[in-house]
Amino acid sequence: MSAELSNDSFIGRLLEEISWEKATHYRRGGRRRENVLTAEVLLPLSYLPRDLFLGEVLMGARGADDARRVVISEIEAADVTLLPDQLEPVPDVRVQPGASFSLPESYVLVEAKRNGRASFQPSQLAKEYLALKAAAGERTPLLS
Question: Its domain of life (predicted)?
Answer without folding.
Answer: Bacteria
